[in-house]
# Entry
Amino acid sequence: MAYFRTLDTKINELQALFNKKERLLILINADPDALASAMALKRVLYRRVHSAAIAHVNEISRPDNLAMIKLLRISTKKLTPPLLAQYDRFALVDSQPHHHPDFAKVNFSVVLDHHPLDKNHPVQAEYKEIVPEYGAVSSLLTEYLYNLKIRPGKLLATALLYGIKTDTQSFERKFSDVDVRAFRHLTKFYDPLILQKIVRSEFHKEWLKYFSLAFRKIKLLGNGSSIFMGKVDSPDILVILADFFLRVHNISWDIVSGIHDEKLIIIFRGDGLHKDMGKLASQMFKDVGPAGGHKQMARAEIPLEKIDQKHAQQFILQRLGEVRSRKKGRPKPVLQLNNLNINNIVDTKP
Ligand SMILES: [Mn+2]
# Structure
């Protein structure tokens, strides 16, 4: 059984597109798979072009992405019109031109992607390969490197491995045989300590104050929990906290809420085995604002004028109680609250 597809003709075609006088810019919507794929494409076209650089269209703020850029020494700049004007040729990896307005204006020589094809937006490029069956574009680029007999350096191999790991959620999400083969191949070359450091870069220092507040404010509700955080700088922190507290054993759902931009924002997370979070969100709040989602993740946003904001937590718990009692056919909301502080969380015996 062949390890990877044989791609000599295709890759020759790709490399033949360029000449040594041209400057190439690789565009991405930066995430681990896109960063790794851009790094690998640079390697594939090394010495085929005068120079190659990477530019991203999004704000990069996730700690793991920042750790990846720093530890794997990936040089990428925010895309601007003056930057674009400095380059002759353009490539796009892990996206298609219609995915972002800044991409749509560019005339691409190369597009490599694994997102589904859209009939209404056919991809135009001199060279394109779009493989929706692949879990990550990093797997495709690993296949290219393998065909070119390029042994990826430690940093590139680590990047590609993390790209595959992220996009397949460590093989918990859809993946193909190529993703598994690419992953196995890359493990010969990567740096496990750097990979670990990137994987574990989950939080920003500025978030720690929110964690300490959350530990003080958490209310345990049977196998669930609810935290009202008050005013927050960004709703992102609510998502981080909701994901974090779902990692507690025997917590199978949680609700983290806070006030931002004149709205009460409520984030729901569940393990998918018990409650349906999308249904819960909509049952609780669909009369006061957009509310919904799917089994494991949901969100509601309620304009502050619809509620008494001094008692936002009370409002949430009351609505939750109503849904629960409706389900159990009880006439009146019944809710058991355990008010906890950090000491009795630690002291609680299972
Ligand atoms: Mn991807």
